[in-house]
Amino acid sequence: MPRSAASLILARFRSRSTINDSEFLIGDFINQLLSFLIVAAVVFFFVVKPMNSLLERQRRKEATPDPTTGVCTFCKTEVSLEATRCPNCTSENPLGTATA
Ligand SMILES: [Zn+2]
User: How much is the pTM?
Assistant: First the structure.
């Protein structure tokens, strides 16, 4: 009876080798390796990737907060938007926004 390629591969998978007096089943090793790769892929695509995209979206939201300060038009220092006078050069209307 001629041996098919599949039976040759199966025979190879069932073969054992000995490393440092330990029996090493090649088929079992390949089975464990494939199981590990499948579990790793599932964890990566269903846990790591969605978590990264969620964190990235959250980071993008935080990156553009509403400004609370502006730049004085006279001395070019940072001034609170609620300030009516510049704390550095004492100019009135440092942001040039108020009309009164
Ligand atoms: Zn100023």
Answer: 0.46
